[in-house]
Specification:
5 helices, 330 residues, single chain, twelve-stranded antiparallel sheet, elongated
Length: 330
């Protein structure tokens, strides 16, 4: 009976020991994915900012500028691309909508971002765009990979349509969550005007005829939870200028927008709570369950060996000596 029990325990020990690396290295990359139907919105604010008044073409101080960012998963588009990509793909249709203190639109920038559901690497397919212009992204955008590393990453900037390094600056604690802090600086760069301008009748083409150009710089900051790769907080020190041309008269340049953009407090709290819950799920697959299965396997193996050793020993040594035959003397 002990022999059968030890064999059963040995089989279970092998099962749990094999399941440990299988869960971590095989199941995790296939189960930890960004859902194709995800919807997320975020509100950011720039208080005491500077904004261009297109009526007088002068920069004015305003109490607050609001930026609403939305990410909406396009399931049909992702399924179509997956047929030829050979991997799980996520398609995000995003919109960054900027409004002034009066609630009127300042600018809006639509994007379509296509990427691998697990690694977050960009997937190049028809429809990848910024403000309707086709682009070919290199590097990440919006989200870091699962199990983010302490190193620099390539990050795509939608305004310039280019990729530049975003630098790892250290590990910090943000509201009880250990995060990696990343920072990227985009130097002054000439960028295109938005397709939809804030003043009716003004188009990018009509502005281009005046010789006036649009320039942009930013310092982008992210605090990223490394297990999920999700930013728990973000800021931008954002500046835009109009330069040259007859539109500005005798001025060389005028500030179009300048402000320190930060996440609104209620969205910070909800984002931190969401990331904490997702972090627990990732820990289950990468740490808690693999190590737990390994410990269970080791315990079952020890118990199996113990029962096997007990089964090989006589149950009652005294009885065995009593039943042993008497030696025959000459």
């Amino acid at each position: 009976m002990r022999r059968k029990a030890s064999l059963v325990l040995l089989a279970l020990a092998v099962f749990f020991t094999a399941l440990s690396p299988l869960l971590r290295w095989y199941a995790f990359p296939r189960l930890a994915k960004v859902p194709a139907n995800q919807y997320q919105d975020m509100v950011l604010e720039a208080k005491d900012a500077t904004l261009l008044d297109y009526g007088s073409m002068t920069a004015k101080k305003v109490p607050k500028i609001t930026i609403v960012q939305t990410l909406k998963g396009n399931v049909k588009a992702s399924e179509r691309i997956e047929r030829t990509a050979g991997r799980d793909v996520v398609v995000w249709d995003s919109l960054s909508y900027v409004e002034g203190p009066d609630g009127e639109m300042v600018s809006k920038l639509p994007e379509r971002y296509i990427f691998d559901a697990h690694s977050q690497e960009p997937v190049h397919a028809t429809g990848e765009s910024v403000d309707g212009d086709p682009v070919t992204r290199d590097g990440i955008e919006f989200k870091w990979p699962f199990r983010t590393e302490k190193r620099d990453y390539e990050y795509f900037d939608a305004q310039t349509r280019t990729t530049a390094p975003i630098h790892y600056k250290g590990t910090q604690n943000f509201r009880g969550v250990e995060v990696y802090y990343f920072e990227q600086t985009i130097p002054w760069t000439k960028v295109p005007f938005p397709k939809i301008m804030p003043v009716e009748g003004i188009t990018p083409e009509s502005v281009a005829k005046t010789g006036t150009t649009r320039w942009y710089t930013t310092v982008r900051k992210f605090w990223v939870e490394p297990l999920t790769g999700a930013p728990v907080y973000g800021e931008e020190i954002h500046k835009e200028e109009l330069r040259g041309g007859t539109l500005l008269g005798d001025r060389d340049k005028v500030t179009a927008f300048s402000g320190h953009v930060k996440m609104r407090e209620d969205y910070i709290r909800s984002t931190v709570d969401l990331v904490k819950s997702n972090r627990t799920l990732v820990l289950l697959m990468t740490s808690y369950l693999p190590w737990g299965f390994l410990i269970i396997g080791a315990g079952l193996l020890s118990l199996s060996l113990y029962l096997e050793a007990r089964g090989r020993r006589p149950d009652d040594p005294a009885q065995d000596r009593a039943e042993a035959p008497e030696p025959v003397n000459a």
